[in-house]
Amino acid sequence: MKTAILRSLAVIALLIIVACGGGGVSQENYDKVKTGMTLEEVKDVLGEPTESSSIGMEAMGKKLGGGVHTWKDGSKVIMITFGGDKVTMKSKNGF
Predict the structure, then answer these.
(1) What is the model's pTM?
(2) Helix, strand, or coil here: 11?
């Protein structure tokens, strides 16, 4: 009985980990991020950012948003710059 419960819990934990998505900081996931993607699309690939900063400005009567979101895993770092809520630039360090 205990073994069946432990197996069930292990399967549930594995499903939660997989469902919570995000692949993390890797070359493969870095390559998946493309100019023009939204933050939500990037989060689907990389998971939640470890750091975020945003800026807001207005030009010619239009509000423009943007910022830099960073994903870290040890010495590996991926930085994604957003302008108008879309990826405009990406960089990596440590791999």
Answers:
(1) 0.69
(2) helix
